[in-house]
Design brief:
The protein is mostly helical. It contains 14 helices and no strands.
Length: about 325
């Protein structure tokens, strides 16, 4: 059973790797410049991904099917808190003295949207894909609020920055909240199919474009002067300890398989590429972030299929 799941998840990871490698190649060969990559990233975040959220939520979500929908953003808060706790303990244990807040950020904030969506699309089919897509969108409601508030604060701790409400209420978050309101008021029945269809076509471009952006961002990573000690303990915490804790907790609690998969998958994901974007945007010294993003994605080629297979081979379908 484990080997069967490992084969499936490894093939899914290989598909994602090919898309990411294409973005990496385009940037390295300067066929896609940093300015073009930033524009493509904004297009995905502000247009394409929200289109996917909007159409998928309208098609597959209702409050009768998901009466406890609020649990998903709440779980995202607990996962971030767990990451902060593990990161803090490793800082104390390893006696890491430099770039401590960057270390904490790398352990705490994962690639929570694009990579999980791509993994789910490659592994599952039919109703299961639609259901776990809804789980991920609801999870992102909480995660994005924390990542773009606490995450920005941690990476700019020594630099006074002006808080902007718009930074946490990003377009995907606003789209999610707006769609929930539309469904709650039963206004979705007034939206014509002729409008939904082109929006759906735009949203369907999300996964390939997102993985191109992820690969391109990794290509911009500066790997000079690698902090081997910090990277070792960061990978230990982020890519091994956290998913192990996740598997133990969800199996101990006996949660439904797909919900447990969401938790384990989020804890097994590499560090968020948006951390590099925040560092560049606020012109902070990139002492550890880019290295952590690069090595966690590289290490994840093995650890993500390993932990997902370990969970799926043990979980009971409910």
């Amino acid at each position: 059973m484990f080997l069967e799941h490992f084969k499936i998840t490894s093939l899914a990871m290989a598909q994602i790797f090919i898309l990411g490698a294409l973005g990496f190649f385009l940037v390295k060969r300067k066929l896609l410049l940093a300015e073009g990559l930033d524009a493509l990233s904004r297009l995905v975040i502000q247009v394409v991904f929200p289109a996917l959220i909007f159409t998928q939520m309208l098609e597959n979500f209702n409050f009768q099917l998901y009466p406890r929908w609020w649990i998903f953003p709440l779980v995202s808060f607990f996962i971030t808190l767990l990451g902060l706790s593990v990161g803090w303990l490793l800082l104390k244990f390893a006696k890491i003295k430099t770039h401590k807040l960057q270390f904490l950020s790398l352990v705490s904030f994962q690639n929570s949207g694009y990579l999980p969506l791509a993994m789910v699309a490659a592994i599952f089919s039919g109703p299961q894909v639609k259901e776990i897509f809804i789980y991920i969108f609801l999870f992102l409601l909480g995660f994005d609020l924390v990542a773009w508030s606490l995450g920005v604060y941690l990476l700019n701790y020594k630099k006074a920055i002006k808080f902007r409400l718009g930074s946490i209420f990003s377009v995907p978050v606003i789209t999610n909240l707006t769609t929930l309101v539309i469904i709650a008021l039963n206004l979705n029945k007034f939206i014509p199919v002729s409008l939904l269809k082109p929006v759906q076509m735009v949203g369907n471009c999300t996964l390939p474009l997102a993985m191109l952006v992820v690969g391109g961002n990794i290509a911009l990573v500066n790997l000079r002067h690698i902090d081997r000690r910090s990277i070792f303990y960061f990978l230990l915490g982020k890519m091994i300890i956290l998913p192990f804790i996740g598997i133990w907790v969800v199996l101990k609690l006996g949660v439904p398989q797909l919900f447990g998969l969401l938790v384990v998958m989020q804890l097994a994901m590499p560090s968020a590429t948006s951390l590099s974007v925040i560092i560049r945007h606020y012109k902070q010294e990139d002492g550890l972030i880019s290295q952590g993003v690069f090595f966690s994605h590289l290490f994840g080629l093995l650890t993500i299929p390993l932990f997902l297979s370990l969970y799926l081979s043990q979980a009971v379908v409910k």
